[in-house]
Every structure is written in structure tokens, then in C-alpha cells.
Amino acid sequence: MSTDTGSPPAGPAAGAGAGDKLDRGVLKVAGVVVIGAIMSILDVTVVSVALPTLQREFDANYATVAWTMTAYTLALAAVIPITGWAADRFGTRRLYLTSIVLFVAGSALCSLAWDIGPLIVFRALQGLGGGMLMPLGMTIMTRAAGPERVGRVMAVLGVPMLLGPIGGPILGGWLIDAASWQWIFLINVPIGAVALIAAWKVLPKDTAQPSEPFDVVGMLLLSPGLALFLYGVSTIPEEGTVAAAKVLVPGLIGLVLVVAFVLHALRKANALIDLSLFKNRHVTIAVITMTLFSVAFMGAMLLFPSYFLQVRQEDTLDAGLLLAPQGLGAMLTMPIGGRLTDKMGPGKLVLAGIVVISAGMGVFTQVGADTSYVVLLGALFVMGMGMGVTMMPIMSAALSTLTDHQIARGSTMMNIVQQTAGSIGTAVMSVIFTNRVLDSTAAGAYSAVVQGKVPADQVPPTLLEQGRSALAEAFGSTYTVALVLIVACLVPALFLPRRKSAATDGQAPSASVAAMH
Length: 517
Hints:
The chain has 25 helices and no strands. By secondary structure, it is mostly helical. Helix 5 runs antiparallel to helix 6. It starts with 10 loop residues before the first helix and ends with a helix.
């Protein structure tokens, strides 16, 4: 008997036997999930552009204000591991509604913060809700559409995942300029209200059934382990070296806890994260590919707006707008990628996507202080097109082969991988870039002027111009590292299923489980 507590009565069965098109019921579910995903993902990048404003408002230094980002990320990492168990135990609908309430409550409290300390605490509350929205959304959509159409529903969910980092700086800059910093949080209240009402009406009611006992030991090992590891990693750019105690102590303790969890999970039948999923060849290959890809691309994405802000001296809003071609490219290819994934398997698409992304990234490895915007925006558009047929097909490669009961655990695991690898990539690229800047006296002087640390009239004009070019070269060198890592993704991607029959191996159990509802 399946322990599915949140899927519609005929969801997977209908999906497995349906035609190519997503029916109206699945599209309604997808709409609800996308609203929640947009809130969670946008919130990370919207707040990033507000850090200087928060410094002024609360008279705090940058390291303290940066905790508004770190607290959200750590709460996100801590809650994701328990999402799979909780979805099985309480039902996806009930848990999804709870996640929205937590997120909206945290947002409202953030807007009322009277000091930086309470704001950091309220951001952590936001993260507890936001951390569950994405894995729950993936579970709900995969169950609703069934394995035959998982590529298409992943493509729908991929839209906010790609547009969040692009739309966040635009929205954040506009809200701060037009209103106040409080509105970067208040904007979530009406959106959250719509998401809550829509989820209440559209998502199927829970039929809660007994689940396996909660893995308390696993939670005590994995949740703090991930949070400590990501804290250590996220501190690398601030410290400038991996050898700093602030990086090594939490990072190593976190790593030890994660390793201890793995040893624990290998011996326990119903562990918090089901490591037996790695017996599925497609899941293992998808995890390896996603890890490499997230480290490379997510890290590079952080630097795209920085180039426009620092080298080209654009304001925050314009820098966000200049990234829009990437989102447009993804929107163009993502629906096509979803359909083709279901028809021919993800392997060929992912390989093509990585090649296309590499071509676009190759342009940025040669970036200069005055590179034509036409060339840069064209490269971003090309990278977006590659992203549209890369990230979500990798997700599909893992989830399409899982049984109905395994989907919640599988989507939780893939979100942990993506979150962790993305944080590592951001830290790695930041450190590489910072070290390249420090290697050049001119680049360091120009960077200090751009960041307002040194008045421009105290630096010779010639040195400023040299520094601008040197800073652009530092960006190019960092993009070269990202390019090498992206090309390396081709190796595991070669082993992704390249035929529909291979991509859907192991789906018979899912169909049989669905038939029991």
C-alpha cells in the first residue's frame, strides 16, 4: 500500500496514461506550485540588493547585515532534509499550506523589524517556510502529472528557478527606489495570500496514513551538519581563505556530521534521506551531473550582475535588466526541452544544453572593460537557451524513474544537492575572483573606489583606467574556471538516459502504485 498522502486520487495513473499535453488539472496544480516557488526563490535575490540599504537603516557593518542572507540560507538547508518524511507523514497539501503560512508570517515580521538582530531571526523563520516550498512543489507536480510527463512539469517549475536570480535584483532595486526596504518583504504578503487560497482550493485533500517513525538521529546529524557546512563555505569570501578558523571549524564539524549521517543512513531502514535511491543508476548520475553543474553555473551567475555594477558602473536596476536576455532564452527553450525530455529521454538534451552554455560562457572568458553590450547580451541569451534544456531535464532524469512513494524523498535529495552545490559554487567563484583582484594593484584600487572605500580623487586617473581593465580581466579569469567546470559536466551527462525507454525504466512500480488509488 502506498504511503502517498498528498497526490490526487488518479494523479499518477492519469499522467502515465495521458497523451502528450498537460491537462487542465495538472496545469492548475502547476500554477499553484509556481507561485510558491517564485516567492521562495525571488526572496533570496531581492534581499541581496538591499544589503547596503540595510547597513544604513540599522547602522550595522556589512558582515552583520550579510547574516540576513546567511540566516535564510541556513534555515533553508536545515529544513529541507525533513521535508520528505513530513510529506509522507502529514501529506503534501497540508505541509505546503503550512510552508506558505510560515513564509508569509516571516515576511510580515521582517517588514516590522526594529533592529538588525530581530530581522535576522525573522529571516530564519522565512527560511523554514521557503525551504519546504521547492521540494514539496516538485513532489506535488511529479505526482500530479505522472512519470510520462515529468519532463514537462519540471520545465514549468524551472521557470521561477531560472528567472528568480534575474528578476530579483530588478524587483528589489525598483521596490527600494520607489518605496522603502520594508516592501521587499511586504510584497510577499499579497502574493502569499493568493498562493494560500489557490493551494487550498486546487491541491487535493490529504488522506493521512501512518508513516514510518521519524529518524530523530538522522535529523540531529544531517540538518545541523548541512547548516554548519554551508555556514563555513559561505564565510570563505569574507575571510578570503579556506584556512581561516571561521571557515574550517564549522565547515569540518558540519562535514563530520554529514559523514556520520551517511554511515547512520546506510544501516537504518527508514533514514531521513533514503540513500538506497543511489542504487538507481539514473538517480546517481543525475546527482553527480547536478552537483558539477550547480557549482559551475550558480557560482558564475553571481558574478554576472557584479560585472555590470563594478566594471560598467550600471545601477542595480539596470544591471538586473541587462540580465533579462538570459531569462528570455530559458523561457524560449524550456517548454520545448520539457516535451523532448518526455519523448526521447534527457541525455541528448542535457549534452546539447551544456555545449550551448559553454559557447555563451566562452564569450565571457574574453570580457573586457568595453566589450559590446550586443555581444554580452547575446551570450547571456545563448546561455539561457542552454539552461532551458539542462537543469530541469537533469531533475527529470532522477525523478522519472522513482516509484510514487520515493518521489518526495527523491525531490528532497535533489534540492539538498542543488542548494549545497550552489553555495559551494558561489563561495569558490567569489574567492577566485577576489584573489585575482588582489593580484593586481590597479584592479584593487579601482575596486576600492567603486565600493566607496576610497574617494576617486585620491587615485590617479591613469591608475583608475588601468584598474577598470584589470578588474574586467579578473572577471574573465573567473569565468574561465566556470567554463572548465561546465565542460566537465559533459562526462557524467554522457551516461544520462538517451532514449525514452531508458528514461522510464523502473516506472512500472509507479504505475502499479497509482492503480491502487
